[in-house]
Amino acid sequence: MDIPKTPQALSAEWLTAALQAHVASVEYEPIAAGVGFLGKLGRLRLRSADGAGLPATLIAKQPTLDEKSRQLAMMFRFYDREVAFYRDIGAQAGIRVPRLHYGASNPATGDFVLLLEDLAPATLGDQLEGCSAAQARAAVVAIAKCHARWWQDPKLAGFAWLPATNDPIHHFAQPAFQQCWPAFVQFVGDRLSPALKRTGEALGGNVIRMLDGVAGWPQTLVHGDYRADNLFFGGSDSNESAIAAVDWQVSSRGGGVFDLAYFMSGNVTPATRRAIEKDLLALYVQTLKGNGVEDFAVEQCFEAYRFGVLYCLVYSVIVIGTLDPSNARGIAVFQAGFERVAAAIADLDAAAMMPR
């Protein structure tokens, strides 16, 4: 089947073939503007003339229209990776994910499409606002269960599409960081302290060694972009502790504590993080232990956490350096995220974790 390149191409005829059920008509509603940066999302409202048992709605995901962001996604094979994740892991992830109804990708052109379960009435998190302490606690428990499910599991190496954190495909991050650094420095201006500027300049030549460090931790399934805008809270029972995670484009196999560091440093305000950080690191380790992981201590977790927080600066630099300037919310999200990460690096003396 052809991969539809635009929302308009998601016709009733194409959907009938993809879903193998008769779709009489479809309405497309754009959603999540300014939330996703490498993909475009829409809600499909489906009608069937013969009672084919179709869901009333589905979520369609296609590539971003921003060419620079699309090229970044193709460089790292993010689109192929996400389609394969839903196909091969999906409900086995250890954390709730939307059910896959159809997925296809073409690595040569960067075209892809996913038709996913609509998670409404669960509520999408808001990275710009930041998570509450209760939401952060629920998110940490959920990702710890996912990590425990795949902890040191040899099956991960059998997924050819799932690279190690330090796989050569990720080595592009080092030249990308160096290329984006001047634009990043200009964008953040005086919000970049002299100390953090020195740290960033040193990090530019150490990105690959940082990736090696993350890859050296106990292996598990890493989400890679575990942030509030990719998390759904609650559902029909309004249970905020019920978490679903979407956007698995950056998934890899490596050290799971990176997801913890990425979430905590960028998705809660510095004041909230300082108040709950120590307790939630202990909760993460406790949840691992409660789900069968016996050989990971809080002290190990804390050192890996500091290392992961430092690597989060790489994300800030590359994303801000390539972000679509027309995405006003995206700019605000990553500006806030950078400021939170900068505070965490200072609070934790994370710069001391730089490889020597």
Summarize the structure.
With 356 residues, the protein is α+β, with helices and mostly antiparallel strands. It has eleven helices and ten strands.
Count the domains: 2
CATH topology of the largest domain: Aminoglycoside 3'-phosphotransferase, Chain: A, domain 2
Oligomer kind: single chain
User: Biggest sheet: strands side by side, in what order?
Assistant: 1-2-3-5-4
Parts with pLDDT < 50 across at least 5 consecutive residues: none
The chain-level mean pLDDT equals 93
At the first level of CATH, the class of the largest domain is Alpha Beta
Main sheet overview:
5 strands, antiparallel
Radius of gyration: 20 Å
| Structural class computed from helices and strand pairing | alpha+beta
Question: What's the number of helices?
Answer: 11
Give helix and strand order, one letter per element, not per position: HEEEHHEEEHHHHEEEEHHHH
End-to-end distance: 51 Å
Give the overall silhouette: globular
The tally of beta strands, per DSSP, is 10
The assigned CATH architecture of the largest domain is Alpha-Beta Complex
Strand content: 5-15%
Q: What percent of residues adopt helix (DSSP H or I)?
A: 40-55%
Could you give the topology of this structure?
Layout: H1 12-19, E1 25-31, E2 39-47, E3 57-63, H2 67-75, H3 78-88, E4 100-106, E5 111-117, E6 123-124, H4 133-150, H5 173-188, H6 194-203, H7 207-215, E7 219-222, E8 231-233, E9 243-245, E10 252-255, H8 257-267, H9 270-290, H10 298-322, H11 328-348
Antiparallel strand pairs: 1-2, 2-3, 3-5, 4-5, 6-8, 7-10, 8-9
